[in-house]
Amino acid sequence: MPDHQIKLSSDRNKVYFMQPLPLVKKSDLSVEIHKNGFCLDFNPERKNPVHKCITLMYEMDPNTTTASFEDGVLTITADFVEAHKGTILKIE
Fold first, then answer.
1. What pLDDT does residue 26 have?
2. What is the pTM of this model?
3. In 3-state terms, what secondary structure has residue 36?
4. What is the pLDDT of residue 31?
5. What class is the 5-79 domain?
6. Alpha-carbon distances, residue 50 vs 11, 24, 60 (angstroms)
7. Which residues neighbour 8 within 8 Å (Cβ) at sequence distance 6 or greater?
8. Do residues 30 and 38 make contact, with C-beta atoms less than 8 angstroms apart?
9. How far is Cα 44 from Cα 12, in angstroms, rounded to an integer?
10. Using CA atoms, how far apart are residues 81 and 63, in angstroms rounded to an integer?
11. What pLDDT was estimated at residue 35?
12. Using CA atoms, how far apart are residues 78 and 75, in angstroms rounded to an integer?
């Protein structure tokens, strides 16, 4: 299975998760949202069923989370409950 990508919006209030899922049909895909991540269940053609969970460091708002599946790529978009911001370090 190809590696996933996780990106943050420029204001760090939203997360984008992209997972290529070749040989997976939309009807064979299930996404379960949790406050700190999500779980994927899918069954690639002629392969064993897969269960994969991704945990994020910050809490997501499940009410604003959306998922789409186009051209074999699952994209999950979620708002963080609090912006993903830390303290800027000075690089010496």
1. 93
2. 0.83
3. coil
4. 95
5. mainly beta
6. 33, 11, 23
7. 14, 15, 16, 84
8. no
9. 33
10. 11
11. 87
12. 10
Question: What tokens does 21 get?
Answer: 């899922």
* Four-residue CA torsion sign, 3, 48, 25, 80: negative
Angle at 42 between CA 40 and CA 44, to 5 degrees: 140
Could you give the CA distance from residue 22 to residue 81 in angstroms, rounded to a whole number? 32
The domains of the chain are located at 5-79
Length of the chain, in residues: 92
What is the residue-level pLDDT of the chain in tens, covering all 92 positions?
A: 679 999 999 888 899 999 999 889 999 999 999 989 999 999 888 788 999 999 988 899 999 999 999 999 999 999 988 876 778 889 99
Six-digit token string for 54: 């991704």
Q: How far apart are CA 74 and CA 31, in angstroms?
A: 10
DSSP letters, the chain, are: -PPPEEEE-TTSSEEEEEEE-TT--GGGEEEEEETTEEEEEE--TTS--EEEEEE-SS-B-GGG-EEEEETTEEEEEEEBSS----PPPPP-
